[in-house]
Amino acid sequence: MPGFAKYLKDLITKKKTTKNEVVNVTHRVSFIIATTTVQKKEDPRAFTIPCTIRLRNFVRALYDNGASINLIPLDIYKQAGLGMPRSTSMRLQMADRSIQRPVGIVDDVLVKVGKFLLPADFVILDCVIDKEIPTI
Predict the structure, then answer these.
(1) Is the pTM of this model over 0.85?
(2) 42-73 as b/e, with b when 16 or more CB fall inside 10 Å?
(3) Taking the domains of the chain in order of start, what are their residue ranges?
(4) CB atoms within 10 A of CB 83
(5) DSSP for residue 38
(6) What is residue 130's DSSP assignment?
(7) Spelled out in words, what is the top-level CATH class assigned to the domain 46-125?
(8) Which InterPro entries did the record assign (predicted)?
(9) Which of the residue ranges 31-35, 41-45, 73-77, 125-129 would you say has the lowest mean pLDDT?
(10) Predicted pLDDT at 19
């Protein structure tokens, strides 16, 4: 058994080594000692971006990295004229623990973000629109 492996095995099994010996390390090891540590910033998780759906501009559309579905209020869906939604048996548990049943799902809606056109599926939810909270 190579010397370094035996030394590690002895350390792991909590055997005390009685003599100091030189161990040759065959791998290159690099370590940078930082005099100042970088302050951690809180993960914003969600932020707002401007986007366009058809001819409707949204200045503050909510973008959430962890979201698995895209919600759109029923009123905005009707104003945008996004076509017929397909029905769904989906149930959504909201943040206040209430259960909501979506109106439907509309597929492959082109969303313009900056210069890019991205296809997105939206779950249509009959809910009240608040001016202070991002709508999409």
Answers:
(1) no
(2) eeeeeeeeebebeeeebebbbeeeeeeebbbb
(3) 46-125
(4) 11
(5) P
(6) -
(7) mainly beta
(8) Peptidase_aspartic_dom_sf (IPR021109)
(9) 31-35
(10) 66
